[in-house]
Amino acid sequence: MSPRAAQLLAIVVALGFVAIIAAIVVSSMNRPEASDALPEVPAGEAGELLRDDPHLLSEATPETAEVVLVEFLDFQCPGCASASPFVQQLAADYGDRLSVVVRHLPLTEIHPHAVDAALASEAAAAQGQFVAMYERLFETQQEWARSAGDQSGTFRGFAEELGLDLGEYDRVVSDAATLERIALDRADAFALGAGGTPSFFLDGEFLQLSSFEELRTIVEARLN
Prior knowledge:
Elements: H1 3-30, E1 55-56, E2 67-73, H2 78-94, E3 98-104, H3 114-125, H4 130-139, H5 141-144, H6 152-161, H7 166-174, H8 176-191, E4 199-202, E5 205-206, H9 212-223
Parallel strand pairs: 2-3
Antiparallel strand pairs: 1-3, 2-4, 4-5
């Protein structure tokens, strides 16, 4: 190989490395900044179906209701969005007889915005607006779930639309304890045998459902 050819080859190789590095940098910049690395929960601390201060879609609490339905969900999961109207209708139809509890199971491997959405719901819950944020996240899911960029600003915009105190919202979102609560929810779900979303437990029994209508049938049978 002539010196000139060797020089050209070296230039081409160098440019190739520069292109690869640039691609990595661009990819990192476009990757969502969601807090998808949840803290680890020791195995011995997980496995509880109900925890203190549960998020409710019903007026009835687990202590007062005849039957308790617990759903582990992921706000970026299309199936959870589809289930939402059915679950809310159950809560409305059975009033103080049925307690409907919502817990987090963010599937971060496939849903990069799931943790940030869960953080938004927790921050809204701290101001008594969990249900309003729950509804807003699912109503708009198709708009933000397909976005490649960080969606935390979108969720903060929802908080503003709901009239939340944004200073308090930001404080709860950035509080390590909030992320720990979401991590504990997910660890409990896995320990209880729930690996996907939505996952439902009725009075502690893990339900294997073929349709959301079947959920209503099972709930009605348990109540009657």
